[in-house]
Amino acid sequence: MQHLYKMLNTRHDDARAAVDYGLPALSDLDLGSRLEDLRRAIEQTIRSYEPRLDNVRVQVLPPESDDPLKIRFRINARLVTKGEKVKMYFDTVVDGAGSWKVTG
Questions:
Q1: Spatial distance between the Cα atoms of 90 and 101, rounded to a whole number of angstroms
Q2: Are residues 35 and 23 in contact, defined by beta-carbon separation less than 8 angstroms?
Q3: What's the first-to-final CA gap in the chain, in angstroms?
Q4: Are 62 and 72 in contact (CB under 8 A)?
């Protein structure tokens, strides 16, 4: 969960060793398809940089009624450890300032 938090809060070009590590800045995404582009970027980043998770799928969640400006996603995956695969999910929220939170 800590690694997911780090990945989601890192922007492309922030990590010198891997310029595609993290996510693109929200301002770099097309306004018309921003949520879908962001959903795909989350999936691709996790698949590329978190080998302990496989079968990664990310879905956009509806906004919460108390704060409709927060963007919410659910990350579904399988944790591969010692040959076992355990289904997991993580909920993520990005606030208006672009800061991500991850819970599992």
A1: 10
A2: no
A3: 7
A4: yes
Residue 67's contacts (CB-CB under 8 Å, 6 or more residues apart) are none
* pLDDT digits 0-9 by tens, 67-94: 777 889 999 999 998 888 999 999 999 8
Give CB contacts under 8 A, 24+ apart, made by 64-73.
69/95, 69/96, 70/94, 70/95, 70/96, 71/35, 71/38, 73/38, 73/39, 73/42
What domains can be seen in the chain, in order of their start residue?
2-103 (3.10.450.40)
Reported as a single tens digit per residue, the pLDDT across 37-54 is 889 999 999 999 999 999
Contact 56, 77 (CB under 8 A): yes
Give the whole-angstrom CA distance, residue 31 versus residue 37: 10
pTM listed for this prediction: 0.83
Task: Name 52's bridge partners.
Answer: none
